[in-house]
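This week, think about what follows.
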Amino acid sequence: MVVSIPVNHRAVYEISCALLYNPVMAEKMDTSGIYPIKRQKADSTSIRGLEALNPALITAYYFFPPERWKPGLALYPRTVTDYELEYVLSSEGGRQIIDGVNIPVKQGDVFFRQPGQSTQGFMRYECICLIFSLHGKIPDLADYRINREKPLQEPFGNPAIENLPSVLGTAGNEVIRALFERLMHAFVNPGPCAELLEKGILTEIIYRYLRKAQVNPDETCRALSDGAGQVPADGAGLGPELLERLDVARTWLRENFSRKITVAEIAAMAKLSEAYFHKSFVRAFGLTPADYLSGVRLAHARELLAATDMPIRAIAFEAGFENDGYFYRFFAKKTGMTPGTFRNSHRMPGF
C-alpha cells in the first residue's frame, strides 16, 4: 500500500539548498535526490516502478548543422548508448532512421531514443538534444561525444518506458518547447541547485511524453509498476496522416467532453467512416472512443470533487455525464468508492 504524505515543497527546496552549500555536511550527504530510493540490484530485464525514475542530465546541446550540410546529407550511423530526447526546432526535409525505420523529421517533433538502438540522421534539421540517465548515474567521462564508443547504459526495465514510440508530434505545444529551452538555459547557465532544477524539468518532459504516448497513463503506469499489462504503442502500424487525424479527434474529445458526443459526430470531424474511425482509434490508442471519453470525464469529475464544493449532481452534469445516477454507479465502479467518499478522502480531517 502506498501512503501519500503531504510535503511542504518550499521548505524541502530551502533545506536542500542549504545542505548543498553546507561545507561541513557536503562530504557526508548524498544530494543527488531529495527522496532517496532504496531498491535491490536487478538485471536489465527487471520491472521497475515508474516512481523509481531518477533522471539525471548527462549533457545537452543545440544541434545547428553548418550551412555546407545540404539537405540529404547522411550523418554517421551510430549506436545509442544512453537515453536521449530531441526537440526539433526546424526541418527542411530532414529524416532519421531508428532501428531500421525511416521517420520524417518535422518541426515540433520530439524524438526518444533508448540504449542499444541504432540511429542515423539525414539533413537538414535543427534541434535541442538531451542525453540523460534514468538511474541517476552519470558516466565518468571528461568529454562526452555521442559518436565515441561507450558502454551502454543499463535499461530502466519498465515496459512503460521500453514501449514508448520513437517520435511524437507536438507541433503547436509551446509548453514542450519551453521545457526543452528552459532545461538548456539551466544547463548552459547553472545556478544554485542547478542539478535539482535540471532533474525537475527533465522529469516533467518525460512525464509529458508518457502522457501523450499513452491513453490513460495514470492508470497504465500504476499497473505497469507491478509489471502487469502492456502499453499500447501510439498508432502501431498506422500511417502518419491517419494518426494525425486520430490525434486531432482525441484532442477534440478532451476539449469538448462536457457536451453530448456521438461516435458518428467525431468520425465525421475526422473525415472517416464511423466503423473505420472506431477500429482505427482502438488500434492507435487501445481504447474505444467512448471509453476514452469516459476516462476524460471521470478525471474532470475527480478534480471538481477534490477542489470544489460543488454539489455532486452539478459535478456530474459539468463533467458530461447524462444523469447523476449513472455518474454514481460509474464513479464507484472505476474508483472503488462513492463520489462523496472520494471527496472526503481528499479533504483535511476536521474540515
Q: What stands out?
A: The CA atoms of residues 65 and 126 lie 7 Å apart. The chain has twelve helices and nine strands. Strands lie at 56-63, 78-79, 83-91, 95-98, 101-104, 109-113, 118-122, 125-133, 167-169. Residues 1-47, 215-236 have pLDDT under 50 and may be disordered.
